[in-house]
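Lay summary. Proteins are chains of building blocks that fold into shapes, and those shapes determine what they do. In this project we predict the shape from the chain. Here is one chain we studied, written as its sequence of building blocks.
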Amino acid sequence: MAKQSEKPAKKLKIGIIGTGGIANAHLKSYLRLAEAGHVEIVGGSDIVPGKARKFFDNAGLTHVKAFDNNKDLLALELDGVSICTYNTTHAECTIAALEAGAHVLCEKPMSVTLDDAILMYRKSQETGKILTIGFQPRYDPNMDLVRDIVRSGVLGDVYYIQTGGGRRRGIPGGTFIRKELSGVGALADIGCYSLDMVLSAIGYPKPLTVSAFACDHFGKNPKYCGEAEHFTVDDFSVALIRLEGNIALDFRMSWAMHMDKMGDTMFFGTDAGLKIKPAGVGTPWGGAWDGTIGPITMYNDIEGQLCETNIPLRRPSDDRFYSKVKAFCDAITTGDTAPIPIIESIYNQAIVDGIYRSSQLGREVEIVLPTL
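And here is the predicted shape, written in a compact code that computers can read:
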């Protein structure tokens, strides 16, 4: 029991920019923290008139302030802001929030271009505020399991990685399929997750070059997409990425295809190999690695015998999305660094940017990163 002389912990004042679908997951998580007395949701904004007000009213939060522009929201005294807008506005909204003195949790992908990601990074450095990107799969205990195995050294030197996966039918709609809003399609929607999974396991080496191919055969066909007339992004992409340390990364991703899957995630090492199957294979939306890990198998030699070991999965102790939001709030409260180092998100964005540029140019491209 706390002594009467002790002051209660300060509640973090939180705002939400963008009140579309993903904002509901942020709100739900902040409400859990609010119930525990850790945060106070003070406002939100959306450029669609009345949308933010309806968002909070539907959640019974009629006292929370709602705005039709970000400027008025950021004029409030905010400790942290969630950026839940469409991809092409991530950079401008993040930079505005940082300039207003708030720490920022920005939804994935970090941005659309590498240049925008660099601007976001530099503004966070200039303001001294936390900037972290919303890769909630990082908080899956089985993500930790894969990372622990790879970093233990049991695989030896990792020289080749395959990652990605694909939905047989899983094209979203709305802002996801319009280039002016999303910038890119399946590549940024679920592709950035699979990249983060394997890159975080090997310590995020710097990407060097990308040779990629992308297409939109399914998205532009009304037979497979109900909004085909609005579809202007990729629904399929593959790439070979060269990483520092003489590592090759084979990336595959799709929203739709005539196939059950595009392969498992695999780490090839000089002493052993690790295979991670995606969850949900056999269902229209399953097969793409966007957060849920399936069976894990290790392949190695023991006394000259070829062996396979099935590794038991860990049981999640909490909701990954809540864990992501809590980690952000904890970092603000303790003055710690960003839960996910921002340089890792920049490398992730550099690869997404490289895949897009290479597929547009039809040739390999170099990834050039400024000194950070």
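What the prediction tells us: The domain at 12-136+321-337 is CATH 3.40.50.720 (Rossmann fold).
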